[in-house]
Amino acid sequence: MNAVHDDVVKLVDKELESANKKFPMFRSAHEGCAVILEELEEARDEMVNTELFYNHLWKTVKENSDFGSLLDAIQVKAESLACEAIQVAAMAKKFQESMEKFNG
Q1: What are the CA-CA distances from residue 53 to residues 8, 42, 76 (Å)?
Q2: pLDDT tens string 10-35
Q3: Cβ contact 66:60 at 8 Å
């Protein structure tokens, strides 16, 4: 398994705890789906941005140009992508817990 898997699970729980302090449980399946979709779209945007920087990096490497700042940008974007993915997981968990509370 991944060396950081257990840490990611803890971060999902931390994100969920923070979200639950700010916002109530989902009141419907539609609301849960909408929130997950929003987080997925944000994660997709971060992935696209990471890929754009990578494409620029590859072009720069082929041209034997300086690419150091592009690596910094890729790292920042990949970290943002990881945060968005954690939010997707947290909202899926919140959705599950919301449905258990209301159906339960």
Answers
A1: 25, 17, 11
A2: 999 999 999 999 999 999 999 999 99
A3: yes
